[in-house]
From TrEMBL:
Residues 857-959 form the Small-subunit processome Utp12 domain. InterPro entries: SSU_processome_Utp12, TBC1_cilium_biogenesis, WD40/YVTN_repeat-like_dom_sf, WD40_repeat_CS, WD40_repeat_dom_sf, WD40_rpt. One of its GO terms (molecular function) is U3 snoRNA binding. It comes from the Eukaryota. It comes from Melampsora larici-populina (strain 98AG31 / pathotype 3-4-7). This is Small-subunit processome Utp12 domain-containing protein. The keyword Repeat applies. WD repeats lie at residues 55-97, 98-130, 175-197, 441-481, 522-563, 627-668, 669-710, 711-742. Belongs to the WD repeat WDR3/UTP12 family. Residues 775-795 are annotated as: Disordered. It is found in: Nucleus, Nucleolus.
């Protein structure tokens, strides 16, 4: 009989605030931060998590986040597996999935109208996506390293007219990219080619930002012989590098509009990207520090203060904030400079005429001025400013008094600082940022080393370097935080009110949960306490340490010194506190790494540094057994509920199951790819759990020596494991600072099915690796042959192959149904009319019957509609030409009926482009193609008429709404009383600022 088990499933992650794998966003109220494979939305003021964006079954970490500039509730999130998901900020659900990259996404960028999305990957590829059609437009290949900057460039379609007061926004026709290959490239999105490349830095280029439009003043580029007098639409670019410098560039819109023209010097064509010098950061930033990130955006504060802020992440903890001076400030600076030069010239008795030759040209470096430096309490992973100048994205309502910047730190915390208003240059050094909010309580600052579940299975305690936290398992909220040393082992006491902690410095600490206080500190060992275990009678415990000793402790109660003000009705109120007393000590020859009591209180197992496990009688401490076989020290062990089995795990990646009666090894299992850190038996069974440095949680059958289930989710080595006393849940803690709860479900699990799934996964990984190798080789050959820089967006995955197989199955089923129907009609025509009427139709396929006896073509369309739009073309690539001819038959039917016109056009276009040669030489398809052309033209015309009608209707409604608003805003002045009219005419201020009069 096949044995079945129960499957375990993961729940939400807790103990995590922000991970360091991606950038973060901030809207003044909410922080959107990466949290391993999820995105957390935090209310920075209350310190509460509002939402979590989690894709079921997806475990790849988040690597990039970007927000649509026109829809504040639309977010693009890139992942390490190369996928991109669009998320709704309202429903917190994924809207669509894009698959086009084979490597991790490194950066995302929207164009100004939100109609296109650009994604860059670590392999140097850039893909342009259409979020509305959910398709990839094309892929740009020109970089050979990680993409670090993406910016859409909007170039005007005409030279701006100074006399014109209005101008329409220009579309994004170009794209700027930077990469760690040191290049800054300018791409023409219409021709899909790189039109200019510049070596931006001597080492890696880490970021790219474009300074928003600034009012025109006479400017000059530095270190350039060419004229760089920009028009109103020229843009300032900034790139940061690994050598600690920031370079400025001017992007000439005139060159992009008219094309490269001969330069004035006659030595070539004009360049679109012109160097404008290097920015020198503050003196405290040591030379050579990497400038990792740069942000430039507008700000608008209360009191009419506005401008442009530019910030750079320098090194690990500093964010240098600069600003753009106004035109008035520049004029004052130039006047002061002329005065200083005049005074120096007078003292030197030089010719006064030299003063008139002073260069008054303003450079970009003159306009950029340091504002303040914000220093985080730990390493900064990313930062973001509140978009105060964008009412569409700024969520707090009224404008703030000060600028706010959010820092996502590497120690699992988020901080929000306020930056005071800018002052004059002489006072800029006295400005200090202020910590406004911080989110620290819901997570540990370092990796989690130990977890323990309370005896009532309601609470879990987690320990790390510096803190002990208590969590509610049901709500996953942190209810207590207590300071401690470097916690290595944690245990609850049976009263569920006290927690015992062993630290790296050899101290034992006892905490009381109700008061969140440390009630006892015991200098237990001179070395780290690697393990502790409660006695089965709960009257004491044992500790094992790196000082080569095992100590046995007994719980005692002591009366605390009463407070002078603590009185009861009948005298002083005395408090009783729990403590521990040393009862005996046993010396060992090596460091003790793990200790464990048997549930029947008969044995004590001790794992030492010599890779052996020694078993002693618990009462007399006499030697009983020695378990040897591991090649490296045993890190953890556990004894089954019936005291018959002991399981050990070691750094040699093996798990061994021993009999506790004779000490024989029942089985040695190669359990993990890395060191096995913890092992625990499940309550009342011989099933056990293991965790390791390979980030896996594995479930085993100790009797059949089978791997029941492998749970993936952690992104760092797992060093903490706890199993509930009822065996219904498992808790694991990792160095990725997350705590995960795995719950036993009612879903049965069969080993054969799990093995098949594992083989399929390994096969898909192998095929993916082969495909990656072939793609890499073909690209190298293409680069040597000088192939084009653009290619179609395609990514063959297991899902797309399965989708193609579903289409083939649907086509075969539909073909069989059509053939059956044709044969029935032919037979009916050849029979007598009376017999033909009595002839019963043939039985159709049960699948078609289940769909309410729909037609075969309608069923094929339903199957195609269920395939994600981003994966449709990859799925159609799987079709052999025989199925393509079948598909053309159904396309003709769909075009005739007008079904899903846009989808059918897309399918037809792709099939024609892919199989053009074969379709052309197949004479039998000529009539089919002509029929499709006729029907599709009619269907498209009908569709176009419908769209045009809807557009005109929307335009009419818009005009009606605007007219209604104007009627409400302005009331005819003749309808007002004469006195009020005279008052309005006299009061110019009121005439200028008159508001709605209803």
């Amino acid at each position: 009989m096949v044995r079945s088990y129960l499957r375990h499933g993961g729940t939400e992650v807790f103990g995590l605030i922000a991970s360091n794998s991606s950038n973060s966003l901030f809207d003044g109220k909410r922080a959107y931060v990466p949290a391993l494979e999820d995105v957390f939305v935090w209310d920075t003021k209350r310190g509460e998590r509002i939402a979590m964006w989690h894709a079921t079954g997806h475990t790849s970490p988040v690597t990039a986040i970007s927000r649509s500039p026109v829809d504040p509730n639309l977010f693009a999130v890139g992942y390490q597996d190369g996928s991109i998901r669009l998320w709704s900020g309202k429903s917190h659900d994924p809207l669509s999935i894009f698959e086009g990259h084979r490597r991790a996404i490194s950066i995302l960028a929207w164009d100004r109208d939100g109609g296109r999305l650009a994604s860059g990957a670590v392999d140097g590829e850039v893909v342009i996506w259409d979020p509305v059609a959910e398709t990839g437009l094309f892929k740009l290949r020109g970089h050979n390293h990680r993409i670090t900057g993406l910016v859409f460039v909007a170039v005007p379609t005409h030279i701006p007219d100074p006399s014109s007061s209005t101008s329409l926004p220009s579309p994004s026709t170009h794209l700027l990219t930077t990469s760690q290959d040191t290049y800054l490239k300018l791409w023409d999105l219409q021709t899909q080619h790189s039109i200019e490349s510049v070596v931006a830095h001597r080492t890696e280029s880490w970021s790219l930002t474009v300074v928003p439009h600034i009012p025109s003043v006479p400017l000059a580029a530095a270190d350039s012989e060419e004229s760089s007098e920009p028009t109103l639409d020229d843009q300032l670019l900034m790139t940061t590098g690994g050598e600690g410098e920031v370079k400025l560039w001017i992007l000439s819109s005139l060159v992009l509009l008219k094309g490269p023209q001969p330069s004035a010097s006659g030595d070539g064509l004009q360049r679109a990207i012109i160097g404008a010098g290097s920015l020198t950061l503050s003196t405290h930033a040591a030379p050579g520090k990497r400038v990792l990130n740069a942000i430039a955006q507008r700000y608008s504060l209360r009191g009419g203060i506005s401008g442009i802020v530019i910030a750079f992440q320098v090194g690990d903890r500093d964010v240098e904030v600069w600003r753009i001076r106004t035109v008035e400030e520049i004029k004052k600076k130039k006047a002061r400079r002329r005065k200083r030069e005049a005074s120096k010239s007078q003292k030197a008795s030089s010719n006064v005429a030299d003063l008139t030759s002073t260069d008054d040209t303003i450079t970009w470096l003159d306009r950029i001025h340091p504002w303040i430096t914000v220093r985080g309490t730990s390493r900064i992973c990313s930062f973001a400013f509140a978009p105060t100048a964008n009412p569409l994205l700024f969520r707090t309502g009224e404008k703030p008094n000060e600028l706010e910047v959010m820092l996502a730190l590497g120690n699992n915390s988020v901080e929000v600082f306020t930056i005071p208003k800018p002052v004059s240059s002489s006072k800029s050094g006295s400005l200090q940022s202020t910590l406004l909010h911080s989110i620290t309580l819901p997570g540990h600052r370092t990796g989690i080393r130990a977890v323990s579940i309370s005896f009532n299975d309601q609470l879990v305690a987690s320990g790390s370097n510096g803190s002990l936290k208590v969590w509610n398992i049901q709500t996953q909220k942190c209810i207590r935080t207590m300071e401690c040393g470097y916690a290595l082992c944690v245990a609850w006491l049976p009263d569920n009110q006290h927690i015992l902690v062993g630290t790296k410095c050899g101290k034992l600490m006892i905490y009381e949960l109700s008061s969140s206080t440390l009630i006892a500190t015991i200098e237990a060992h001179t070395g780290p306490i690697w393990s502790l275990d409660l006695r089965p009678d709960s009257k004491g415990f044992v500790t094992g340490s790196g000082d080569k000793s095992i100590k046995f402790w007994t719980f005692t109660k002591k009366t605390a010194n009463p407070s002078s003000s603590a009185t009861a009705f009948t005298g002083e109120l005395k408090t009783v506190e729990l403590s521990a007393t040393l009862s005996k000590t046993m010396k060992m020859s090596d460091d003790v790494l793990s200790v464990r009591y048997s549930p029947d209180s008969k044995f004590l197992a001790v794992a030492t540094l010599d890779s052996t496990v020694k078993v002693f009688f618990q009462d007399t401490l006499k030697f009983f057994l020695s378990l040897y076989g591991h090649k490296l020290p045993v890190l953890s062990m556990d004894i089954s509920f019936d005291s018959k089995l002991i399981v050990t795990c070691s750094a040699d990646k093996n798990v061994k199951i021993w009999g506790l009666d004779f000490g024989d090894c029942h089985k040695s299992i190669f359990a993990h790819e890395e060191s096995v850190m913890q092992v625990k038996f499940e309550s009342r069974s011989h099933y056990f759990w293991t965790v390791g440095k390979d980030k896996m949680v594995k479930y085993w059958d100790g009797d059949k020596f089978e791997n029941i289930q492998t749970l993936q989710g952690h992104h760092g080595e797992i060093s903490a494991l706890a199993v509930s006393h009822d065996g219904q849940l498992l808790i694991s803690g990792s160095h990725d600072k997350s705590i995960r709860v795995w719950i036993k479900t009612d879903e049965p699990l069969f080993l054969e099915e799990e093995r098949e799934k594992e083989l399929e996964r390994l096969y898909s990984l192998e095929e993916s690796e082969k495909l990656d190798i072939s793609i890499t080789q073909s690209r190298k050959q293409g680069e040597e042959a000088g192939d084009e820089e653009v290619e179609a967006v395609s990514k063959q995955t297991t899902e797309t192959l399965m989708a193609g197989e579903r289409i083939i199955e649907a086509l075969l089923l539909a073909d069989a149904d059509l053939d059956l129907t044709n044969r029935f009609n032919i037979a009916k025509e050849n029979m007598d009319p009376e017999k033909a009427e009595k002839l019963a139709p043939p039985a159709r396929n049960p699948i078609l019957v289940a769909y309410d006896n729909i037609s075969a073509s309608a069923y094929v369309l339903k199957v195609i509609q269920r395939i994600p739009r981003a994966a449709l073309e990859d799925a159609l690539l799987v079709l052999p030409f025989a199925q393509v001819t079948m598909m053309l038959t159904h396309i003709n039917y769909w075009a005739k009926k007008g079904c899903s016109t846009s989808l059918v056009c897309r399918i037809l276009s792709f099939l024609i482009r892919t199989h053009e040669t074969q379709i052309t030489v197949t004479a039998s398809l000529k009539l089919m193609i002509d029929s499709i052309k006729t029907n599709m033209t009619r269907s498209l015309k009908k569709h176009a008429d419908m769209v045009a009608y809807n557009v005109e209707a929307i335009r009419f409604v818009k005009q009606a709404i605007e007219l209604e608003q104007k009627e409400r805003e302005f009331v005819d002045i003749d309808l007002r009383p004469e006195q009020e009219v005279r008052k309005l005419i006299k009061d110019k201020h009121m005439v200028k600022k008159r508001k709605v009069v209803l």
